[in-house]
Amino acid sequence: MAKAYTHNPSPLFILWLGISLPLVLWDFSYVMLRPHSMPGGKYHLPWKPYAIYCEVDLVYGFQHYHEGNGFNPAQSAMNFVETMGYFYYLWLVRSGDGGDKSGEKGLFGVRKVGGSTAGKAVVVGLVCCTATFWKTVIYWLIEILGGYKNIGHNDFQTVFWFWIMTNGPWLVLPSYGIYKFGKEIVEALSGGGEANGVKVE
């Protein structure tokens, strides 16, 4: 019997994308427009909060920029690639191709999708979440294993609120996405019936 897949997007994951994708594009544009986006630059106004953040995390500050440190632009380039992948996922789950187009739409107009569209959506979601998670792990490990050279000048309260709380969600929510998408794929491939969002018939 042929297998038919359906994927029902997680509302929490869709909400996360609605919040995170604009922030990532904002961050990407700050990095790529330096020095004009930095404090004192002619385009700094839309990035005024970075006047504080670049003092907390020196990766975003003047020293790293003038030294030509390539990590921040490289990370931002990867952020952009991941973001395009997430937008592709959203396009797939908004199109409703292969699913019930008459069905009720969820958050941001997404709906359950089926067939090859569902398969593409789940794979793209898993790949993007995995890339985001491990890139963020590397970002944290560079600080931990490098003696906190970029954030160690701050007190703990500053690091907690301005670095851990602002970067932590890019570990927690992609982990959730990896779990959800991975579970759906395993359940579908094992023929275990209806998984969490994926149905095999």
Protein model, in words:
It is a single chain. Helix 1 (11-32) packs antiparallel against helix 4 and helix 5 (115-145) runs antiparallel to helix 7 (169-189). This protein has seven helices and two strands. The longest helix is centred in the middle third of the chain and has 31 residues, at 115-145. Mean pLDDT is 90; it is low at 193-198. It has a two-stranded antiparallel ribbon. It has 201 residues and is an all-alpha fold. It has one domain (6-189). The chain has helices spanning 11-32, 50-56, 62-67, 71-95, 115-145, 156-167, 169-189; strands spanning 6-7, 113-114.
- Please state the overall shape, judged from the principal axes of the Cα atoms: elongated
| Largest sheet geometry | 2 strands, antiparallel
**How are the strands ordered across the major sheet?**
1-2
Percent range for helical residues? Answer: 55-70%
Q: How many strand elements?
A: 2
Mean pLDDT: 90
Strand content: under 5%
Determine the N-to-C terminus distance: 8 Å
Rg over CA atoms: 20 Å
What's the number of structural domains?
A: 1
Number of H- or I-type helical stretches: 7
Structural class: mainly alpha
Indicate the low-confidence ranges by residue numbers: 193-198
**H/E element string?**
EHHHHEHHH
What would a concise description of this structure say?
With 201 residues, the protein is mostly helical. The protein has helices spanning 11-32, 50-56, 62-67, 71-95, 115-145, 156-167, 169-189; strands at 6-7, 113-114.
